[in-house]
Amino acid sequence: MTQVRRSVGEALWGMCAADAMSMPVHWYYNIDDIKRDFGGWITGFNAPNNRHPSSILTLSNSAGSGRTAWSSGGNRPHVVGSVILHNKLKFWKASGGSVHYHQGLQAGENTLNAICSLRVAQALTGGKFASVAEPAARGAVLADYVHFMTTPGTHGDTYAESFHRAFFSDWQDPRPTSSSKVLEFAEQRYQQKMNVSVPDSQLDAIGCLPMAIPFVLLSATANEDQAVSAAVEFVRLTHPHPKVEKYVTLYARALHATLNGECLKQQAEAALKSPELDAWDTCKPYIQKAARFPTSSAEGLKVHQSAVEMLGMACYTRAALSSMFYLAHEFHSDPHGGILANTNCGGENCNRGFALGALLGARAGYTGGSVPQEWKDGLRNAQEPIHEILKML
After folding, report:
1. CB of 205 closer than 8 Å to CB of 161
2. Which in 68, 162, 354, 366 has the greatest CB count within 10 A?
3. How many Å apart are CA 207 and CA 290, to the nearest integer?
4. Count of CB atoms within 10 A of residue 237's CB?
5. CA–centroid distance for 3 within its chain
6. Rounded to the nearest 10 degrees, how much is the dihedral formed by the CA atoms of 48, 49, 50, 51?
């Protein structure tokens, strides 16, 4: 139990450290821009620049999912600025583009998805549920989510990805707030979304994992099927897309096994070989090439950057999970090196890093290691929630 508790604790630190590390270079698709903007590869927490070299924030749909150009409801009301992300609409509508998605955050601050994940864990630990898999637990989490997202001043981030905007676009008509009513709304919404002929492709993204991960962490001592079910039952309510559940299942099984002492390297290899990803043959040449260089060397980083570029830098779940499990395989016993490599591989490194950091932290915690203390100390808005969660475990 002590080892598993340590594993859960280091997973919390790892996921938040990885998210905060990547935040200033989130969605940098030209990795040379990282070196240019920060005077070399990232080695610690940084604040973002106001300008983002490949930002498409101003093309994003402030009324719902995706981009404005894709939206059929051109006259739909904004959810950004009115329902969520209060006082942030001006950045979405700025002339000239290139606004950083996380402008205004400070070094060591976490993105919105990471904060939402910590609030999930707080709602679950504070609710004293017999099992986090019960409907009442999901209802409590969703009610807290609605309150947090719709209350001005609760966070400082500028960006909310498509699943948030789509949820609150649908929510703003009935506007339920109680746990039972929000749960009922989300369940009905899931049924409706799963019956459409063309699902929202923006929901098939690795951003499905952060709010689901606490359900696995807090089911670490339950059996694997219970832990997986708890995560999947919840993610249906935020990401109603037919492909998402199999990817969440794959990740949740790997995380639960790692929390309980299974070898992360073996878990990552099994995930990469799974029919869901089928990426092992693509990874093997990069794994063999990286083995020629010292861990965390510049030459090794270049190999990992090439691997992630080949496997997928973007948010779509299959590619992003393939990149994430590749990094988990290569840095299975090195949370410091793995978190930095993930950041410096660019692309969708925040949500990918969040999932990776949980795995690397879990393995380190179980085997007596830890996420670097200086990173724990440097987390600006995650320290208090993590300490509170650990106290309630």
Report:
1. yes
2. 354
3. 28
4. 21
5. 25
6. -120
Residue 335 · residue 296 · CB < 8 Å: no
Task: Say if domain 2-392 classifies as CATH 1.20.1080.10.
Answer: no
Residue 60: φ, ψ to 5°: -70, 150
For residue range 84-143, list pLDDT tens digits in order: 999 999 999 998 889 999 999 999 999 999 999 999 999 999 998 999 999 999 999 999
Sorting pLDDT into bands at 50, 70 and 90, what band is 75?
A: low
How far apart CA 227 and CA 216 sit, in angstroms, is 5
Going from N- to C-terminal start, the domains of the chain cover 2-392
Strand partners, 67: 60
H or E, element range at 225: helix 224-238
Distance CA 80, CA 132 (A): 31
Rounded distance, CA 203 to CA 236, Å?
A: 10
- In this predicted structure, the answer to whether residue 13 has a pLDDT above a threshold of 90 is yes
Helices (H) and strands (E) in the chain, counts: 18, 0
Kindly state the tokens that stand for 372: 């670097």
